[in-house]
Amino acid sequence: MHWLLLKIQSTEPQAEALSDVLMEQGALSVSIEDAHADTLAEQAIFGEPGDPPPGIWQQNIVTAMLDAEADVQGLLARVQAELQLDGLKYQLEQIEEQDWVRATQAQFDPIRVTDRLWIVPSWHEAPNAEAINIVLDPGLAFGTGSHPTTHLCLSWLAQLPETLLRSANVLDYGCGSGILAIAAKKLGANTATGVDIDPQAVIASRDNALNNQVEAIFYDSAEYLHEPFDLVVANILSSALMVLAPVIAKSCKTGGKVALSGILESQQQMLLAHYAEWFEMDAPIQQDGWVLLTGTRKCP
């Protein structure tokens, strides 16, 4: 048995209406994806505290799963007539029936951060049982350790002196899956706290901490009191890092350390200049076009 995947190029104003009409016309499922996903042109759409809900990407691929015998040309004609569109660009693919769970799991192998720190999906054996192994499955929240921005933050945490971490209270600002807070605690941090605007991220973080037998606290951003921490790690969008700089600075104790990621190389000078108001900034650390910025909190 097989199905058809109809992939239609779409702009932001069209995508949601196109998705609705495809479902009305009998599609088995419809998804909207960034047309530039997995490239440097990928567009992040997560909102920030106080902002209206985010929209969708400017350039999209609307993908509809159809029965193998579906009349694709007839479907396209009906969709274009209802939406008063013409000349939709599309491609058609055939997808065979398969074990979807195994196919998904096969995409995720254990990730080595350093020799002593690994991210291990729950269905894998840890490559190094003596290492610090964080059990983390892909979920709805960002942060499986595979993206360079997450990898940069984990590497930074792993290279911190154990004496520093043991006495440190760590804040993971924009915690996503909670991976950075969990890693900090497993590496020896005194306490680990996470905060996120997304309720799903808070739920995922709490579940991941429980699965890793780690004591960490996670808050919705609306409940966060902005107490000062010894170490603050923020792996979020560069636009959010700009807007939230005063909040992140307020969350870091004098003499405390900050690590900022989610920054492209082309954005580093802008962020360095902005955060220099509150922090003595270090030289950037780069990986695959992305940058980690670190610094030490100045006296207010």
From TrEMBL:
Keyword Transferase included in the entry's annotation: yes
* UniProt KW Transferase keyword: yes
Q: So where does this one cross the membrane?
A: none
One GO cellular component term:
ribosome
What are the alphabetically sorted keywords of the record?
A: Cytoplasm, Methyltransferase, Ribonucleoprotein, Ribosomal protein, S-adenosyl-L-methionine, Transferase
What superkingdom heads the lineage? Bacteria
Give the first-level EC class, as a single word.
transferase
- What Gene3D superfamilies has UniProt attached to this entry? Vaccinia Virus protein VP39
**Compartments in which it is found:** Cytoplasm
Note the SUPFAM superfamilies from the entry.
Answer: S-adenosyl-L-methionine-dependent methyltransferases
Tell me which EC number(s) this protein carries.
Answer: 2.1.1.-
Family note? Belongs to the methyltransferase superfamily. PrmA family.
What is its biological role? Answer: Methylates ribosomal protein L11.
The protein's name: Ribosomal protein L11 methyltransferase
Say which species the protein is native to.
Answer: Methylophilus glucosoxydans
